[in-house]
Design a protein that fits this description.
mainly alpha, 6 helices, 183 residues
């Protein structure tokens, strides 16, 4: 069964089904079976010793999804949400960046009539984005400059959706400034 395969995986501390708990050995049920128990589906709760927003958590989700589970098996939780958001962003990011760069080059070419100015604008925007993301990483991921931004809990990671949002806003602002300078 699926829960025995999951229980044998590395980094899994305990597995709980509606009637049993595994922590090295299967324990007898503490209460009668609940209405959640069915022959059609099972709900399995895992406790792991990996951080959910870490590459180890993403790898564990991938390993659980790779098990020969019945059709329709769903994996949820913080690690699965993080893995799915990373996959969604990494799958669509090259296409979005290409479209954004081409649209910027086209609009600036139509605005200025120059080939060199749009290329310069995109390259400077990329440099500006790199600096912005570098400062975000230095301040919030590594915990520097708390005297400036206030005290906060350093988690060691930045939320991927926040990085995408900040990158899009920063690109728009630097392009706006570039058009202002060109005009």
């Amino acid at each position: 069964m699926l829960f025995r395969s999951v229980a044998g995986m590395a980094d899994v501390v305990s597995v709980a089904t509606p009637t049993r708990v595994w922590q090295g050995t299967w324990n007898v049920p503490q209460s009668p079976p609940t209405s959640q128990e069915s022959t059609d589906y099972y709900r399995i709760s895992l406790v792991t010793d990996v951080a959910p927003r870490d590459s180890a958590g993403v790898d564990l989700v991938a390993a659980i999804r790779a098990l020969s589970a019945p059709t329709g098996t769903l994996v949820g939780g913080a690690s699965a949400i993080y893995a799915d958001s990373l996959a969604g962003i990494s799958d669509n990011l090259p296409r979005v960046l290409t479209l954004l760069a081409l649209a910027t080059l086209l609009v600036l070419f139509l605005y200025t009539g120059s080939v060199l100015l749009p290329i310069k604008a995109v390259l400077l925007n990329i440099a500006s984005l790199g600096a912005t993301l570098g400062v975000l990483t230095w301040v919030f991921q590594e915990g520097h400059a708390t005297w400036l931004v206030g005290d906060f809990t350093v988690t060691g990671v930045l939320d991927t959706s926040t990085i995408v949002l900040v990158a899009v806003v920063a690109f728009g602002l630097t392009m706006d400034y570039e058009v202002f300078i060109l005009s």
